[in-house]
Design brief:
This protein is an alpha+beta fold. It folds into 3 domains: 2-73, no CATH class; 79-144, Arc Repressor Mutant, subunit A (Orthogonal Bundle), CATH 1.10.10; 150-318, GAF domain (Beta-Lactamase), CATH 3.30.450. The chain is 40% helix and 26% strand. The protein has 10 helices and 15 strands. It has a 6-stranded antiparallel sheet, sandwiched between helices. It has a 4-stranded antiparallel sheet with strand order 1-2-3-6.
Length: 328
């Protein structure tokens, strides 16, 4: 038996050439075997061998070398981390346990490329081994995500930005979320000058006739939008609007809504979504624009819209969402 040692940034192995012409890849850091090649000796413990044909091994080496070259062209490349995240994502989307072969095929990789990462994820309890050859996602990611409740993180990121926005515009602003056919005001910042329109924290607002409510409806998947519409109409049947779908589609196209208020005369409402990683609105950030007749240099509605859009985009990105958004 002869052998040679292969080391890449995210792959280390001993490649053994057996007398019958097949090849075996042995994971180098965790196995137990001595392989002699000239003056070099490699120690591998508790070896687990994967057999490949010569063609498959050559293809595997070419792939690894190619990914190294690609990694050099990409800044801040972390191929091992990306591989682990890919494995977690495919298991999260699967409704049943998957074999290593199925995982590898789903990711366009080979078993040899993923088996060490799968073992690591099992050891860290992100993945559970159901039987000898199938794996399923555990609840660890869910538990980690809920150490900080979503509303706590949303408030932590949004409130400082809302304070700066209110100071810049000399207008109040508020943050709302959807809840069973209504909106709830999570946070608000009053007009710094002390004169203007604002809503109270904890207030319940209508959905169908407010810009913030329609923004929340517009940026959901189809099933969620349908459910929320039904709940909102059930709560306030008199607010049902046969044109609502066209209105929501218009909001989706421009990314926000900006219209005169139908609830308070003389008020102009502008609202943008706070987007999650899927592009869905987790909240709406709104400025109820009130005009001051004693101030000539007050910010215009287009200026308010631009500043509000930038603030919403900033909050979305700080929460990990809104990538590539055209908000503002």
């Amino acid at each position: 038996m002869s052998g040679r040692f292969i080391r890449f940034d995210d792959f280390s192995a001993v490649l053994l050439c057996c007398h019958h012409g097949s090849y075996m890849v042995v994971d180098e850091p965790h196995r137990d075997l001595y392989v002699n090649e000239g003056i070099h000796e490699y120690h591998v413990r508790n070896f687990e061998i994967f057999k490949f044909s010569e063609v498959e091994v050559t293809s595997e080496i070419d792939k690894l070398q190619g990914s190294m070259a690609e990694g050099e062209r990409r800044s801040y490349s972390a191929p091992a981390l990306e591989k682990g995240l890919d494995i977690l994502e495919i298991l999260c989307h699967s409704e049943r346990p998957m074999t290593q072969k199925e995982i590898a095929q789903g990711l366009g990789r080979t078993v040899g490329e993923i088996y060490r990462m799968v073992a690591c994820l099992v050891e860290r309890n992100y993945v559970s081994q159901v039987d000898d050859n199938t794996y399923i996602i555990t609840t660890k990611l869910y538990e980690l995500a809920h150490i900080n409740p979503p509303t706590h993180r949303l408030m932590f990121e949004a409130v400082p930005i809302m304070k700066r926005l209110a100071m810049e515009l000399d207008q109040s602003c508020h943050l709302t979320v959807y809840s069973q056919g209504k909106q709830v005001v999570l946070a608000k910042v009053d007009t710094p000058s002390g004169m203007g329109f604002s809503v109270r924290t904890g207030s319940e607002l209508d959905v169908l006739i407010s810009v913030s409510g329609r923004v929340l409806l517009a940026f959901q998947n189809e099933e969620t939008t349908k459910l929320w519409l039904e709940e909102s109409v059930q709560r306030k049947p008199e607010q049902s609007d046969p044109q609502i779908q066209a209105i929501l589609e218009s909001i989706r196209k421009i990314g926000f809504e900006s219209v005169p208020s139908v609830q308070v005369r003389g008020l102009y409402a502008v609202s943008f979504p706070i987007l999650d990683t899927q592009g869905h609105a987790m909240a709406a950030l709104t400025v109820p624009y009130s005009e001051r007749i004693d101030q000539n240099k007050r910010k215009s509605i287009p200026e308010v819209t631009a500043a509000l859009g930038a603030a919403a985009r900033n909050i979305s990105e700080r929460l990990g969402g809104g990538k590539g958004s055209t908000l503002g």
